[in-house]
Design a protein that fits this description.
Layout: H1 2-55, E1 67-75, E2 78-86, E3 91-92, H2 98-107, H3 112-126, H4 139-144, H5 170-176, E4 180-181, H6 196-202, H7 207-223, E5 245-253, E6 259-268, E7 277-287
Parallel strand pairs: 3-4
Antiparallel strand pairs: 1-2, 2-5, 5-6, 6-7
Helix pairs in contact: 2-3
Length: 293
């Protein structure tokens, strides 16, 4: 009986030791994962600040361009991929007039009738009254379609509100997301700051002309000279603002570890925390582990 008792005690202690070792291993894995995640997020956040520093360099040859050009920042054994987009190269959703909106929708692949419906629906969403435009939609139309959110009769506060406009499907929203901004307050767009995905339809899908224009734009930015304007596009106003607000995408990749990214919209000017810029939007994201090539 004594031998049986000893064997039982040894078995119980073995089980307890195994359970403790497994628990310790899990906790160590959780702590390691949290450390990797925090490091990747810190590097991505540092990438945003580094981008704003490179935008402020006095030498135009060293200054980074806010036209979607990809840059790579090597730091701490990691690689941070950074893109800066000047919001002046997009259409302000709250300032765009009906003709501009119709033009954007047609360039995004919609026919004339659907483009008119979508433009009027956005105008009805923005205006303070309940009067329905010729092709628009007011609260009763949303109720008839059993849509959750009726027109807010005010300007858009966040871009995701565009999803609630009647006729905006998830697929169409993904196409339009690169076209619109909320941060310039001006009609039209500045082609000198527009990204490729906007310039290509503006140039009728001519890839060669697009590459030629981008090359001229890079040379003009480096030399500090004037850039030749694009051919006029019916219904689209060129000009707009620039160097006021930017969207910065920073993605940190650490070999064999979890990556992270930050999508931030930033406006020039001192922030509440004393920073030389004001953060308008800040969206961190986590990425799966990926080895660097």
């Amino acid at each position: 009986m004594a031998l049986v008792m000893v064997l039982w005690v040894i078995s119980l202690m073995t089980i307890m030791a195994g359970s403790f070792a497994l628990s310790t291993q899990r906790e160590a894995g959780i702590l390691s994962h949290a450390h990797e995640r925090s490091k990747a997020l810190a590097l991505a956040e540092g990438g945003v600040n580094y981008a704003m520093l490179m935008l402020s360099l006095p030498d135009p040859k060293k200054r980074w361009q806010a036209d979607g050009t990809p840059y790579v920042w090597q730091v701490e054994g990691a690689r941070v991929k950074i893109r800066i987009m000047d919001e002046g190269g997009k259409i302000d959703l709250n300032a765009a007039q009906e003709l501009t909106l119709k033009t954007v929708f047609k360039l995004a692949g919609q026919n004339e009738e659907l483009a008119a419906q979508l433009a009027d629906a956005i105008m009805d969403w923005r205006d303070p009254d309940d009067l329905k435009r010729a092709h628009g939609a007011e609260a009763e139309d949303y109720l008839a379609r059993r849509l959750q959110s009726p027109p807010q009769n005010r300007n858009f506060l966040i871009m995701d509100e565009l999803r609630g406009v009647m006729g905006i499907t998830p697929e169409l929203y993904r196409k339009l997301e690169s076209w619109f901004t909320l941060y310039t307050g001006e009609e039209g767009l500045n082609p000198a700051k527009a990204p490729k995905e906007i310039l290509l339809p503006l140039m009728g899908g001519d890839v060669a002309a697009l590459e030629n224009y981008l090359q001229q734009r890079r040379l003009s930015a480096a030399a500090g000279g004037a850039l030749a304007s694009l051919p006029p596009v019916p219904g689209m106003a060129f000009g707009g603002s620039s160097d006021m607000a930017y969207t910065v995408s920073a993605v940190a990749e650490i070999q064999d570890q979890q990556g992270a990214g930050v999508l931030a919209t930033i406006r020039r000017g001192p922030g509440a925390d004393g920073a030389p810029f004001t953060v308008l939007r800040w969206k961190p994201t986590l990425l799966p582990a990926k080895s660097n090539p």
